[in-house]
Amino acid sequence: MQAGGPRGMLTNKTDAIHWASVLEQDDTEASTARVLRARSINTKEYDSVLYGPMVDYSYRSLDSLHDALKLTPRPGLRPNEYTEDQKLKSCSFRLSHNKLNDLSGLEQLINTVLVEPSRLFWIDLSFNNFLRIDPVLILCTNLQVLNFHGNQVGELFEADKLASLPHLRSLTLHGNPVELQKGYRSYIVGIIPQLKSLDYSTITKQDRSTAAVLKSFTKQKRPAQRRYHE
């Protein structure tokens, strides 16, 4: 990807939106049908100075996030950009293709590594060993893109926790056992209405209509707050 300005920084909204849409593509997906449309990413709240390369801890055989603190992020096509106090200019984190089964230490890792941790808007946790969606993710209040495919989540209600993320626009859960449950897509669309894309497929009016019908026939609705406090 070509840089949009000096030192590889993106300098305008168009470049930033393009960068965000390309960034979220799964490395293993070649089909253009599974690329999230750029318009679903809201970048206007983020200063372009933070659009450095993603912080990449993928393929490090991590079974604990505490171990990541001892490692240097993987280099990419663009060099990592550090501040004087050795923090990274980035809004995105990649922790895919590891052995993680919980997110203990995520908050510490983000606070230690990023210049402005509160602005994290993209995180890739795909291809790990998660059995559940850790409620620590709701602390990432500006999260817009969450890749969680290729894990072991089996219960639909695990997605309820994500309903409280007001800016969440793209979610991937395919490759989890939950994908095989009847009404999977309609349930997720209904419980997280702010989503624009699920499993790299744009959510359509028909998807929302079907989700609304399913929800109307569901006697017990599961508020997001209930599940992660149990």
In brief, what are we looking at here?
By secondary structure, the protein is α/β, with parallel strands linked by helices.
Write up what this structure looks like.
This protein is 20% helix and 8% strand. The protein has 230 residues and is an alpha/beta fold. The chain has a 7-stranded mixed beta sheet, covered by helices on one side. Helix 4 (184-191) crosses helix 5. The longest helix has 12 residues, at 205-216.
Give the uncertain stretches in residue-range form: 1-49, 224-230
Strand order of the largest sheet: 1-2-3-4-5-6-7
Query: DSSP strand (E) fraction?
Result: 5-15%
State the total count of DSSP E strands: 7
* General shape: elongated
Write the H/E string, N to C.
HEHEHEEEHEEHH
| CA-atom Rg in angstroms | 17 Å
Helix/strand/pairing class, anyone? alpha/beta
Summarize model confidence as the mean pLDDT: 80
Major sheet summary line: 7 strands, mixed
Considering DSSP H and I runs of 4 or more, what fraction of the residues is helical?
10-25%
Question: Secondary-structure map with pairings?
Answer:
Layout: H1 13-23, E1 55-56, H2 65-68, E2 92-94, H3 106-113, E3 122-124, E4 145-147, E5 170-172, H4 184-191, E6 197-198, E7 201-202, H5 205-216, H6 224-227
Parallel strand pairs: 1-2, 2-3, 3-4, 4-5, 5-6
Antiparallel strand pairs: 6-7
Helix pairs in contact: 4-5
Looking at this protein, list some descriptive labels.
single chain; 230 residues; alpha/beta; 6 helices; 7 strands; disordered N terminus
